[in-house]
Amino acid sequence: MRSRVEGRRDVVVVGGGPAGMAAAARAAEMGLDVLLVDEGRRLGGILPQCIHPGFGVHYLGEELTGPEFAQRLASRVEDAGVDLLLDAHVPEVRWISHAEKGVRVLSPGFSGEVRTGAVIYAAGARERHRFEIGILGDRVAGVYTAGEAQTMMDVYGILPGRRVLVVGSGDVGMIVARRFALEGAEVVGVVEIMPYPGGLTRNVVQCLEDFDIPLLLSHRVVAVRGRGRGRVERAVLVRVDEGLRDVPGTETEVECDTVVVSAGLVPRMEVLRELGALIDQATGGPMVNDRLETTVPGVFAAGNALVINDLVDHAAEQGEQAAEGAAEFLRRGGIPATDWVKLRPGEGVKLTVPQLLSGERDVWVYLRVARPVRNARLSLRGAGKEVRLPVVRPAEMVRVKLMAGEVRRAKVGGREVVAEVYGG
Amino acid sequence: MGVRVVVVGAGVVGASVARVLSRYEGLEVHLVDANPDVGWGVSKANTGIVHGGYDDDPDRFPLRAELCALGNEIWHRWVEELDVPHTWSGALVVALEGDQRRELESLLERGRRNGVPELRIVEREEALAMEPNLTQEVEAALWAPTVGQIHPVRATVAIVENAVDNGVRVHLETEVRGVKVEGGEVRGLETSRGFLEADVVVNAAGLRADELADMAGVEFPRIRPRRGEYWIFDRSAGPKPRRVLFPTPTPTSKGVVVTTEVSGHLMIGPNAEDLPPDAKGDVGNTAKGLEEVWERAGELWPRLPPRRLVIRTFAGLRPEPEGGDFVVGNTEVWGFVNAAGTRSPGLTAAPAIALRVRDALVELGIELREKGEWKATRRDIESTIDLGWRERVERARDDPLRGRVVCRCNLVTEREVLEAIERMRAVGVRTPSIDSVKFRTGATSGTCQGSFCRVRLVELLAREFGVPPWGVTLKGRGSEVGVGDVKVLLRGASTGGEGSEE
Ligand SMILES: Cc1cc2nc3c(=O)[nH]c(=O)nc-3n(C[C@H](O)[C@H](O)[C@H](O)COP(=O)(O)OP(=O)(O)OC[C@H]3O[C@@H](n4cnc5c(N)ncnc54)[C@H](O)[C@@H]3O)c2cc1C
Predict the structure, then answer these.
(1) DSSP conformational letter for A204
(2) Does B497 have pLDDT greater than 50?
(3) Is B51 a known active-site residue?
(4) Which chain A residue lies closest to B492 (C-alpha atoms)?
(5) Which residues pair with residue A12 across a beta bridge?
(6) If residue B369 lies in a helix (H) or strand (E), which one and from where to where?
(7) Is ipTM > 0.90 here?
(8) Residue A326 to residues A104, A121, B409: CA-CA distances in angstroms?
(9) Residues B447, A126: C-beta atoms closer than 8 Å
(10) Which of A301, A406, B342, B450 shows a CA-CA span of 20 to 30 A to A220?
């Protein structure tokens, strides 16, 4: 497929992972002139490195592997007539006016500024690394993030090590642990600082128990040790109490040549921050309204660049929502002014998205709870809504629909909806 | 035949000596180091400050006092000639209480004696006007406008590249194990790669200078490692000071600095912790040391960013010679010349130490005539991140590889990586390592710490060095990034054998 790059666009989508592909496809299907820019040499974002199944159950109604899911969306992008620019980095988006932006692109094929009416920022997330989670000690080889280890194995064909310790028991951590076991490496353990596993029970069984990989809860890796300019030889663990403080005298050492850090993701915010978008400390992503528009008019966000998702389905869905928001923005010359209702996390809730609600449309609300709760009562105080959920866990994003009328109730009150979760 | 000079140690000091000596006719200069690349000893992990020269007491530490002030002056020229990343930001030495102010006055007096220009004590209001985020507890400060910062490894690389351009030969991964002395004169060096003849040996061995002197039978003060630890924040994290901020110094150290280092990151450190003599490889970080740094830095800069904006911690070892002063010049063995004892401010003093070594050669009766043709300048790899948008686009249109961004956080393109690899080769790097590229380009040292681009560097290094990707190292042999291809263990299991060789 030959793509045109030059010329003004209706929409430029930055990032070709699931969110960006869904956004680009949807926008083009609505008749908009769309350019999709991605750093990779192929579309898919992090999907091509996720060769395990579990993708698309909600969004496509069938269970696919990462590469398969990416392939589906990529065909849709192509069919919709989206122009593609791959192997291309966007270091900056320039504000020209509320209705005009300049997307700056560097790539071997095209470098320059692409003018556009709307931008959908779907550049994904980066992984938290060793220094952010306080792993001290020696600066030796053999410490990788989970995604990096996956890429080494599944894209470049490199086996990073023989004896592997995984830090973090989220789904990614457990899946990487199994990935190593499948290649004959010895996984000496998965270490989790919380008193419960970070990922789905299904993964605890299928990735750890089925492979006899020990899960060490309430522990943290404090240091890696190795000699001189060599590789990791040991990791130092310590037990933590309920307050996540180190328990003195509980230090132990584990022999390993590789430490894989799977300590969660952080939305990539450099470009949006430079643009002046307000960042929500709870999500690490931009503050958005119910069109997924950031506080910079005409700039929308979706996927892990908006909020860290555990399901690709949600990321893709946000891409579509952002595309619809961008289409409305272009059609009406901007999102109409209104007295926005603020949605914020309260008791038992860690984060909520979107942060601003208009009350003019029904909206999907995404939220993450602070700790696992059985027979949970989710209250959206201010909107007078309550939902019962059999179980909620920090690992799984909760998604509920808030009706326009419910949001409007908050307009007479404090102009605020607070999400709270209670047990029993 | 000319005089063969072998400089042992390709840190900033040995590199400076090699560059200075490369200027003369009739000298054949060799630079030897055990490490896989230049500048990987003490010169790799330090504060990177070109000190003003007001700290060192000329009565107690005459060499430090003289060579620091002179080194500062020379660096102003060298950074231009060699295109070394730098800032002449100036420094404030901050006094918090009454008796600390007296300390400022004695620094001022020392600076005056050492010939440091433009020093001035500023009062609280002026200090706060200069640095609005400085602690409100400030009472006065010594303003030292000549203080600057350089990227220490890039500086060392720059010096070596220029030296090589002027005929110096570099031998890396070459460990010196013995010094051959006959009739009181140096004859050569026993190395891990065989015997190297030498008429003159320059001891620029940093932490191991005492051991090298032992090999020659030359008396030398013992060197103890003194550890210093640091925190570096994300580029976005602030507030950042415009100038280097020091507390008032103590007898052992200039104290924990708060500074915006040359690539624009807020950095705090170092503390000073004396380690046993056998801990010369102990550059790991400790919670205790780092907490101390955090606390001290907070005293100067109360608005430290949150911990989650830390992108890296590191530690360095100062080679502390007994007696405290540099050890530079001729010795009881003819041809064995010291350029050592290089505790702080050794980075600052390096060019001046090199001039002293040249003088020592003259003292030995070696005739030094300047070459008719000597190249004074060297250009750095052009960093995309330092360019404006127009220039970035122009470069990328002329050269597609200048448009392919490998390291997203620091905007390092494939061309810069390939140029780094070419330059690694030019100074004799044999083992492909990620750190060699990192120190030349900044790749992997940004917000994500390489989780995106490390593997891309591996791919390029493997291709250019003709090795399999798993054989690429982080920092030299023994630090290979992988153990083999992805099926190596499964294959090993089915044949009952072990996996691949590393
Ligand atoms: C924490 C810290 C902060 C500092 N801050 C500053 C500062 O801000 N400003 C300043 O001016 N100074 C500072 N310094 C001091 C400065 O870093 C050093 O003085 C300087 O880098 C010393 O350089 P060098 O070339 O002597 O040593 P090195 O860089 O260590 O070079 C010596 C080399 O010799 C090699 N070698 C040793 N033995 C052998 C052998 N037998 N065979 C082969 N090779 C051998 C080593 O591999 C090494 O590469 C600081 C130091 C530390 C540790």
Answers:
(1) I
(2) no
(3) yes
(4) A184
(5) A35, A119
(6) strand B369-370
(7) yes
(8) 19, 11, 28
(9) yes
(10) B450
